[in-house]
TrEMBL record:
The lineage of its organism: Bacteria, Pseudomonadati, Pseudomonadota, Gammaproteobacteria, Alteromonadales. GO terms for cellular component: plasma membrane. The chain crosses the membrane at residues 12-33, 174-191. It comes from Motilimonas pumila. It is found in: Cell membrane. Belongs to the Smp family. This is Smp protein.
Length: 213
């Protein structure tokens, strides 16, 4: 009777373990989906933050140079911005929106904003790139004296962020696999000890019955 009770208890324990494993598996799948969504949202937010920060900092220098009519410094600023591999081009406008300084080989703003119709293969390639312009206003005290436009290579920025996040996800998956293996080994070891203990109890029960006879 005691052995049957222990067997029934063992079946219940195994069923609870299986149910817990299924619940944990479902929770892991949910976390994976949620993390992918958060990662995508984070990539976009980080790109926007990078573009806004870069443009606003450069705008402070541009406003100072424009106010003091430092033409060479403005050319140097535009060139240094465009030299960044994550920047497509940079342009400085006066308060009327007229171009006064621009980096070499600038992208057409109409193509970047998908306003101009694609007429050639080069236009198609230019339009296909994921590029976003960021604009900052230039002020002399409270008077607007111009604008700074920086066109970012958003595709390259997202790719870099995606590479970092992929490495992090790979490390997380490796840790999960190792945790699963450790849990499996511990469970197997406990299962062996449980079977050994059941055999000991069974032998003790048989010995007790033999003495009773």
């Amino acid at each position: 009777m005691a052995i049957k009770f222990r067997q029934k208890h063992l079946y219940i324990w195994r069923a609870m373990q299986l149910l817990l494993a299924l619940v944990l598996l479902g929770y892991i799948i949910y976390l994976n989906v949620d993390l992918n969504y958060l990662a995508s949202k984070s990539r976009t937010e980080q790109t926007q933050m990078f573009g806004s920060t870069l443009t606003s900092r450069a705008a402070q220098d541009a406003a100072t140079f424009l106010q003091n009519e430092q033409t060479e410094e403005l050319d140097r600023l535009v060139a240094s911005l465009a030299a960044d591999p994550l920047v497509r081009d940079a342009t400085i406008y006066n308060h009327l929106g007229e171009i006064i300084h621009q980096s070499e080989d600038p992208a057409s703003l109409d193509l970047v904003l998908h306003i101009k119709p694609v007429k050639s293969s080069s236009d198609a390639r230019e339009s296909a790139h994921n590029r976003i312009p960021y604009v900052a206003e230039l002020y002399q005290e409270k008077q607007k004296i111009g604008y700074l436009r920086v066109t970012l290579e958003q595709g390259k920025i997202l790719q870099q962020i995606n590479n970092y996040q992929s490495q992090a996800r790979s490390s997380t998956k490796t840790m999960l696999v190792l945790a699963f293996l450790v849990g499996f080994l511990i469970t197997r070891n406990l299962s062996k000890k449980r079977r050994w203990w059941q055999q000991v109890m069974h032998k003790a029960e048989m010995a007790r019955k033999s003495r009773a006879i």
